[in-house]
# Entry
Amino acid sequence: WLTSLKSSRRARKCAPNSALGQRLFGETILGLTQGSVSDLLARPKPWHKLSLKGREPFVRMQLWLNDPNNVEKLMDMKRMEKKAYMKRRHSSVSDSQSCESSSAGIDYSQGASPQPQHQLKKPRVVLAPEEKEALKRAYQQKPYPSPKTIEELATQLNLKTSTVINWFHNYRSRIRRELFIEEIQAGSQSQAGSSDSPSARSGGRAAPGSEGDSCDGVDTDGPPEGKPSGGAEAEEHSNAPAKSQGGPGEPAFEAGEEALRGARSSEKAEPFQAESLEDTDDEGRLRAPRQSSPPAPRRAGDALETLPNSATEGDASTSAASTSVLTGESSYKSKESSEKSSSVPSTSSTPGSGSQKANSLQSLFGFSEAASSRNTRDSSLRKKKAANLNNIIHRLEKAASREEAVEWEF
DNA sequence: TTTCAGTCAATATA
DNA sequence: TATATTGACTGAAA
# Structure
């Protein structure tokens, strides 16, 4: 199922019509942009962590996979899109032509038609590597900086305050997602008898501020005043066993039905965990009966619960964070360099699927060789991620192959 | 008001 | 050209 981008590109060359792109798939099926699709596929969250909205794309994916003519339809769309595009290009009269291809409610005009020339767009801020480093150092010292600290950081780095705020929000959020994945994979590994999980390595690691292996025993003073966000995370993890009613290892899509029916009780939804790699028989289905087996202990939660909480709250650490940002020597290993690697197993969890459809799906869900070649240090982590995604896809396909009608409503 | 989840969309990368 | 990254934004929750 999961192949490297290289192989999928090769496949595209051989059979161009069989390639599904993230853009097409995202815009037509999921209602998301390409970047969101990429993110979604690369960093899926545990099902129980997803909000109702967050589950929607997965459910759409599931529905699409249930459609026997899914790929064909998509290819048709692609062809129509291409046609429409060519028309627009070769005729200057293209006003409403973009609508012709949007029979499925897709707005294809976005990419091709010139945008209204409201040149009021702000130029995108691109942080320099040094700025990022500085922000990361600040984050390590204080993941939840006070407004004052933010102000100081912004001043020192010559950035807008909102940029610094946004950066912290984004970074926290993305670190958290990385941790989800790592913990999931760690769980998978440990269940499979492996001992080289990140958790094992770090011995109960993983604060929201620890950022994978890039953080050498960082202080994370946890959530800010009052609002436990990282802490809530930890709490949720630690509570998971009590809350979860189903067995572990359900894929993200499993509980889609419930989700779409408005069952917001995410506690009931099975967490998407890589432990599920083991029990691959009947659980990928849409309407799988709730598992009655007790949930496995959440190592992630355990780890998060045992955070060192050494940093002190207050202006001391605050100003320490802000003053050392630019000059302090960093123990920080850049995430970019430590995280991006992948050695994707070209597994096939769907034996016998050599069809065009499979090919297309491979290209869609495949990993980028680019990512894999960037760094080999974390290839094992990448492998684990790959296995995780592989599992998702496998289950999706299994579910898609079932006869049962889907009754989800959006 | 702050934080977060989810997403967009510009840009980088392969 | 397709995919990955990331700064910014929106809306919800607390």
Remarks:
- Residues 5-6, 9, 32-36, 39, 45, 49-51, 53-54, 57, 121, 123-124, 126, 144, 169, 172-173, 176, 223-224, 226-227, 229, 232, 368-371, 373-374 of chain A lie near DNA strand B (CB under 10 Å from a C1').
